[in-house]
Structure formats: C-alpha cells, structure tokens
C-alpha cells in the first residue's frame, strides 16, 4: 500500500460516506462526484490512464450532471424523511452486493497479484475494441441507440398529451 | 545564439535549474518549474486580452473603450484587479456557504488543469500523456459541475436558471466538440497532443501541407470545433447562461468582489485552453506557418496562433446577436451533430485513398452535399429577404 493509494482510498470512501449520510440530495450527488473522482485517481495510480480519464469524463461529466438535473427537474431538494423499513432493505441489498463482489474478487484470482500489471497503451485498447471485441461493442452501441430513441419517444408522448 | 537555442531557451533554463537543486527535491522542482510559468503567463494573457477585447468591442460599437488608466488604457486590468480585491465579498444569507465558496475555485482549477496537455512550443508540454485529449475533455467535464455548483449554491432563481442553461448548452455542444476532434484522432492515429503536432510537421515548398486545416474534413472540422468551442466557453453569441437582459448575470449573479473576478478568469482561461487545443489539433500546433519563418521560436508561433483565434472570438462577439434557447439547441443537434458525423466519414475516406487532388475532391463532396441539404431542410421553405424598415428608412 503506497501513500497515493491511501490518500485516494480515503477520498473515495469519504465521498461515498458523505453521499450516503448527507441530508440534501444535491449535496449527496456532489459527494458522489468526489467519490468517483477518487476512483478515477485509483485507476490512474494503477497505470490505467484511459479508464481513469474516461471515468471522469463519463461519470462526473455525464452521470452526476444527469442525476443533478433529475433531482432539480422532478422534485425539490428538501431532505426526505427517513424510514426504518427502507434503511433495513438498503442495508440488506448492500450487504448482498458486497458479498458478491468479495466472492468475485477472491475466486477470480485477481487478488493474488500473480499477473503483473501491464501498462496497456491506448492504441492497444483501440485495436482490441475494433477487432476482437467488435461484436460486443456493436451490441452496446445498438442498445444505447435503442435507449436514446426510447427516451425521445417517451418525451414526445408527453408533449402530445399536454397539447 | 543559434535559432535552435532561442527556440529551446525555456527548456534549457528549466533543465539547468533542476540540475542546480539537490537530487532529493529534483522531481518536485521539475514539476514546479513546468507548472509555474503556466500559472503566470495565462492569467497575464487574460489581463491583456480583457483590455484588447474592450478596446476592440468599443471600436466596433463606435466608442473608445477604456483609455484612462495608464498609456492607452493598458493598465485598466490592474485597476480592475485592485477594485475586485477591495470590494466587499457578499454571500447571500440563504446560500449554501460551502458550495458557493468552492464553485469559483473548482472552475479556475479545472481550467488550469486543461493546460497540462497543450504543447505551447517544441518540447514544451507539462504532461506528455498517452491519452491527452481524453484528459482535456475530462477536465472540461468537471467545469460543468462547478458551474452547476455556482448556480445551485447561490439559492437564487436567476442563478439556477443560468446554471441550467449553461449545463444544458455545454452538454449539447460537447458532443460536436469531441466528435470533430475524433476526425483528427483518426488520421493522426493518436490521442497524444504532441504526436498530433508531429504528424502535422513538414512543408511542401513553403506551404505547411500537412496541417489538418488544409484538408476538406479538417477545414469543416475546424469551423465546427470553433463554433462548439464558442458555445463551450459561454461566449457570445452563445452567452445565454449569462444573458444580462433576462437573468441578470446567470450563474454568477450572487458573486461579488474577487469571486466574481475568478469566474471571469475561469471563463477566459477556458477560452484560451480550447483555442490552444484548436491550434494543436488543426493549425499545426507550434509549427511556423511558412517554411522560411522557422527561425522564429516555436512558442511565439503558438501564442500568435492563439491570439489570432482569440481575435476571432472578439470579432464574433462584436458582430452577432445572442441566440434564442430553441435556436441554440436546434443548431447543436440538427446541424452540428450531423455535420460532425459526416466529417468523421470524410476523414475515413481520406485515410484510405491515395493522396492527390482526386482525394481532396472526393472527401469534400459528402461535406458540401450534407451542408447544402441540411441548409435547405432546416430553412423549412422559409424565404429570407432583406429586412425592410417601414419608418426608419
């Protein structure tokens, strides 16, 4: 464990904890952004430059902004009253997710650290995506296009009804 | 001194200074010496640009512009800076103190981050990364968050409206901005800004033949990139987020004193950074525009090109009126996006055709065709005539 790793891990965890505990939804979204930036820093620390930068570009630039827009356009940013039932189900779900992640990491062999971290240059990633993984890439593209068209159709329906 | 020594003078000085320091702190000194000049030069450029802009706009609007402070008014930014420093810093009672305070800092910080990957001269780039372009756009994405923070943290309806407008506009124009630079990445085969500059080196006679702006897709891409850059830095005619006639000053309505100055600085730093990227991507970076002018140092050429683009920004600001919100969105999604896609398509053809005049024509055809078709379709059968004035003639 190096010093940069510890600092970045502290930032990530602090952001995540703040995102869960803060009262105002917009604060939570901004804390989530801090956590995501910390995660991007971890990727950069591991030498995965493209993944780390894409993490900032996609998650901070698009996902957090989307969350914030959704909060502002749909409801006020007043804190919701906490309910015990919701908290219990939340704890259970997160425990399950954590268990699955631990199982995946332990059984996947990634934790042993046998494979030396290879610094893949960005051109290698591009070549792999355009040759070996071309089909998954196309499928993802199709899925996203379908989602985009679906969103437009839903928005247009609403417009017609209000007229 | 030879021309090469002058060209590399800053690099040489830096190496000498690093070698003078003790070995333990050498990495830190090296980083500091790379970063400090950027922190000094670009804010100074900002100060000079504000004066030039106000004087230029003044001339375009038939008035003098600032001419009281110092010779020809060139000490005006100093006076403005002192004024901003001694003004009272007002924070609204209802404002979210922390978010309100952090927003301008984050904006300026991310704007400075963008300079890390821009080569301002031969061997003069702070971080020569493999994926420099992604880094640039990632830093730009963080800028959107800071603008939202400013608008939301102020707890003011006008600020909120301005921030919503700004974020919507920046997201919409980010798509054409990134797509038009993808064409360059396709041809250069690299995301590294230094490699992109290297690929544009070389002359054909005296002419810088390899600059991407001299290809059909590069020409169209450059124009699209600059339009998107204008929108991305919230400059006129895309300055709806701060439309002072409707929403006072948009997201920085509730900022006064030095925080307001920070927003101003952030906006200009963003503009310089994105112009620097345009120079790097399309205008050959720090290369001289004609082969017999290579004796002039590379960093002078970079800043000359940068200031030329800035002059273009100022000129456009003095010329065009502000767009309406629906016009802004229609322009981004119905015109800019298809045009950038066809630019990428044209760059693909360019990559696989043998060089020559035929390639130039073949690559220009889809772009011109789509431009013509889109122009016809978006006009929607409307006829534009010369405006006639009934009473003012």
> Whole-Å distance between the termini of chain A?
61 Å
Distance between the termini of chain B: 64 Å
Oligomeric state of the chains in view? heterodimer
Q: Which value, in Å, is the CA radius of gyration of chain A?
A: 20 Å
Q: Report helical residue fraction of chain B.
A: 55-70%
Mean pLDDT of chain A: 82
Biggest sheet character of chain B? none
Helix content of chain A: over 70%
Secondary structure tally, helices of chain B: 14
The total tally of domains of chain A equals 2
Radius of gyration of chain B: 22 Å
pLDDT < 50 runs, ≥5 residues of chain B: none
Mean pLDDT level of chain B: 85
Structural class of chain A: mainly alpha
Number of strands of chain A: 0
Please describe the topology of this protein.
The complex is a heterodimer of chains A (163) and B (393).
Chain A: H1 3-21, H2 25-45, H3 49-74, H4 84-108, H5 122-130, H6 134-162
Helix pairs in contact in A: 1-2, 2-3
Chain B: H1 3-7, H2 9-20, H3 26-60, H4 76-86, H5 97-114, H6 132-153, H7 157-188, H8 193-199, H9 216-232, H10 244-247, H11 257-282, H12 298-319, H13 325-352, H14 357-379
Helix pairs in contact in B: 2-3, 3-12, 4-11, 5-6, 5-11, 6-7, 7-9, 7-13, 9-11, 9-13, 11-12, 13-14
Describe the protein in words.
The complex is a heterodimer of chains A (163) and B (393). With 163 residues, chain A is an all-alpha fold. Chain A folds into two domains: 1-79, Four Helix Bundle (Hemerythrin (Met), subunit A), CATH 1.20.120; 121-163. Helix content of chain A is 79%, strand content 0%. Chain A has six helices and no strands. Chain A has helices at 3-21, 25-45, 49-74, 84-108, 122-130, 134-162. The longest helix of chain A is centred in the last third of the chain and has 29 residues, at 134-162. Chain A is globular. Chain B is mainly α. Chain B has a domain at 87-312 and 333-379. Chain B has helices at residues 3-7, 9-20, 26-60, 76-86, 97-114, 132-153, 157-188, 193-199, 216-232, 244-247, 257-282, 298-319, 325-352, 357-379. In chain B, helix 3 (26-60) runs parallel beside helix 12 (298-319), helix 6 runs antiparallel to helix 7 (157-188) and helix 7 runs parallel beside helix 13 (325-352). The longest helix of chain B is centred in the N-terminal third of the chain and has 35 residues, at 26-60. Chain B is globular and about 65 Å long. The A-B interface holds A 26-27, 30, 33, 37, 49-50, 53-54, 56-57, 60-62, 64-65, 68-69, 72, 121-123 and B 96, 99, 129-131, 134-135, 137-142, 144-145, 148-149, 152, 160, 164, 167, 171, 174, 189-191.
């Amino acid at each position: 464990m190096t010093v940069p790793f510890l600092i970045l891990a502290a930032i990530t965890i602090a952001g995540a904890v703040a995102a869960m505990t803060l009262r105002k939804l917009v604060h939570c979204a901004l804390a989530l952004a801090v956590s995501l930036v910390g995660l991007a820093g971890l990727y950069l620390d591991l030498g995965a430059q493209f993944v780390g930068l894409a993490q900032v570009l996609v998650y901070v630039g698009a996902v957090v902004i989307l969350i914030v827009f959704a909060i502002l356009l749909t409801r006020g940013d007043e804190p919701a009253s906490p309910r015990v039932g919701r908290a219990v189900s939340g704890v259970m779900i997160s425990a399950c997710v954590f268990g699955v992640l631990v199982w995946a990491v332990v059984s996947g062999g990634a934790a042993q650290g046998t494979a030396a971290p290879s610094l893949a240059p960005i051109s290698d990633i591009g070549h792999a995506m355009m040759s070996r993984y071309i089909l998954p890439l196309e499928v993802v593209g199709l899925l996203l296009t379908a989602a985009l068209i679906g969103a437009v159709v839903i928005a247009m329906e609403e417009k017609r009804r209000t007229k | 001194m030879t021309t090469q020594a002058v060209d590399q003078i800053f690099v040489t000085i830096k190496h000498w200074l690093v070698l003078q320091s003790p070995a333990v702190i050498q990495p830190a000194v090296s980083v500091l010496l790379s970063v400090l000049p950027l922190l000094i030069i670009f804010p100074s450029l900002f100060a000079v640009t504000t004066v030039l802009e106000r004087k230029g706009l003044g001339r375009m609007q038939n008035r003098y512009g600032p001419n009281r402070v110092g010779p020809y008014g060139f000490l005006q930014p100093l006076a403005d800076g002192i004024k901003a420093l001694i003004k009272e810093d007002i924070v609204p009672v209802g404002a979210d103190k922390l978010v309100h305070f952090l927003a301008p800092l984050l904006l300026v910080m991310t704007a400075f981050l963008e300079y890390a990957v821009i080569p301002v001269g031969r061997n003069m780039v702070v971080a020569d990364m493999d994926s420099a372009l992604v880094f640039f756009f990632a830093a730009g994405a963080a800028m959107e968050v800071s603008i939202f923070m400013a608008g939301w943290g102020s707890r003011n309806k006008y600020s909120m409206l301005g921030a919503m407008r700004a974020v919507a506009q920046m997201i919409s124009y980010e798509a054409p901005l990134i797509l038009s630079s993808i064409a360059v990445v396709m041809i250069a085969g690299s995301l590294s800004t230094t490699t992109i500059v290297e690929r544009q080196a070389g002359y054909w006679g005296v002419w810088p033949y390899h600059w991407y702006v001299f290809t059909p897709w590069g020409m169209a891409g450059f124009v699209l990139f600059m339009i998107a850059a204008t929108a991305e830095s919230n400059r006129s005619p895309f300055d709806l987020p701060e439309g002072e006639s409707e929403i006072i000053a948009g997201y920085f309505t509730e900022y006064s004193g030095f925080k307001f100055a920070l927003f101003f600085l952030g906006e200009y730093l963003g503009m310089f950074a994105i112009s620097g990227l345009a120079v790097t991507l399309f205008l050959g970076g720090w290369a001289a525009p004609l082969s017999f002018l290579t004796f002039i140092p590379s960093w002078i050429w970079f800043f000359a090109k940068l200031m030329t683009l800035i002059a273009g920004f100022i000129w456009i600001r003095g010329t065009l009126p502000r767009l309406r919100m629906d016009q802004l969105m229609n322009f981004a999604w119905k015109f800019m996006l298809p045009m950038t896609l066809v630019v990428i398509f044209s760059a693909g053809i360019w990559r696989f055709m043998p060089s020559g005049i035929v390639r130039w024509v073949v690559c220009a055809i889809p772009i011109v065709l789509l431009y013509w078709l889109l122009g016809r379709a978006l006009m929607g059968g409307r006829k534009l005539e010369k405006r006639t004035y009934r009473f003012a003639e």
